[in-house]
């Protein structure tokens, strides 16, 4: 009987000790990737103003977007993202000369393909065909199936009266898109200017036929 009482007491003490330990507050387990402090995720003025300028440009509030980009550049004159954004908005708002000057102030190796193509479009608008053609051609070496850019090359070559080169590019486009009536009409016109009147007439007739 006495042994039973002692065992019961031991078991009760053990259970009480286990319960007490379970009730004690536990130290938090260290996180493998602690949450960043507010300072680490703070957005500086430049980032906020750049985002504002983008939003304004998306909403076609061009004067305000231009002002926002220029404020960024006043604080950080070599900010490429701000220069590209400013150049685009100036272009969209019809300020061709300012837009071209802005893009030309950026080292070409700092421009991505989209910005380079925008610069080429600006150069064409200013009738600076040779440097525009150089940019388009370099892009097509890496992206030969970009038919929209190839059409720009063909059009530029036409304005430069480089008819054989232009015709070769129109033919490539028509091979991929035989039902594009506008490209076929351009092709027919250039054939005519190149003195290939019979073929020009044939292509223009095709462009006037209703799609099957």
Brief rundown of the structure:
This protein folds into 2 domains: 44-132, Serine Threonine Protein Phosphatase 5, Tetratricopeptide repeat; 144-212, Serine Threonine Protein Phosphatase 5, Tetratricopeptide repeat. The protein contains 11 helices and no strands.
Task: Give a verbal description of the structure.
The chain is mainly α and 212 residues long. It has two domains: 44-132, Alpha Horseshoe (Serine Threonine Protein Phosphatase 5, Tetratricopeptide repeat), CATH 1.25.40.10; 144-212, Alpha Horseshoe (Serine Threonine Protein Phosphatase 5, Tetratricopeptide repeat), CATH 1.25.40. 71% of the residues lie in helices and 0% in strands. Residues 1-31 have low confidence and may be disordered.
Question: Any idea how many domains?
Answer: 2
Q: What gross morphology would you assign?
A: elongated
Q: Report the CATH superfamily of the largest domain.
A: Tetratricopeptide repeat domain
How many helices in DSSP terms? 11
Strand percentage, roughly? Answer: under 5%
Question: Mind describing the biggest β-sheet?
Answer: none
- Give the low-pLDDT segments: 1-31
Number of strands: 0
Radius of gyration: 34 Å
| CATH fold description of the largest domain | Serine Threonine Protein Phosphatase 5, Tetratricopeptide repeat
- Topology pattern, helix = H, strand = E: HHHHHHHHHHH
Helix percent reads: over 70%
The CATH class of the largest domain, by name, is Mainly Alpha
Mean pLDDT: 86
Structural class: mainly alpha
CATH architectural label of the largest domain: Alpha Horseshoe
Q: How far apart are the termini?
A: 107 Å
């Amino acid at each position: 009987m006495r042994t039973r009482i002692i065992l019961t007491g031991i078991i009760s003490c053990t259970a009480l000790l286990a319960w007490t330990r379970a009730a004690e507050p536990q130290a938090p387990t260290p996180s493998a990737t602690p949450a960043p402090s507010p300072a680490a995720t703070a957005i500086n003025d430049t980032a906020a103003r750049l985002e504002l300028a983008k939003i304004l440009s998306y909403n076609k509030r061009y004067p305000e977007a231009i002002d926002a980009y220029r404020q960024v550049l006043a604080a950080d004159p070599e900010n490429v993202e701000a220069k590209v954004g400013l150049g685009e908005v100036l272009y969209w708002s019809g300020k061709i000369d300012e837009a071209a000057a802005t893009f030309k102030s950026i080292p070409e190796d700092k421009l991505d393909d989209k910005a380079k193509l925008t610069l080429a479009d600006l150069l064409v608008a200013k009738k600076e065909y040779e440097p525009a053609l150089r940019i388009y051609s370099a892009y097509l070496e890496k992206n030969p199936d970009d038919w929209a850019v190839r059409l720009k090359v063909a059009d530029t070559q036409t304005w430069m009266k480089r008819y054989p080169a232009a015709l070769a590019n129109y033919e490539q486009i028509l091979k991929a898109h035989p039902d594009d009536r506008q490209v076929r009409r351009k092709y027919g016109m250039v054939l005519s200017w190149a003195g290939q009147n019979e073929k020009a007439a044939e292509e223009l007739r095709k462009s006037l036929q209703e799609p099957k």
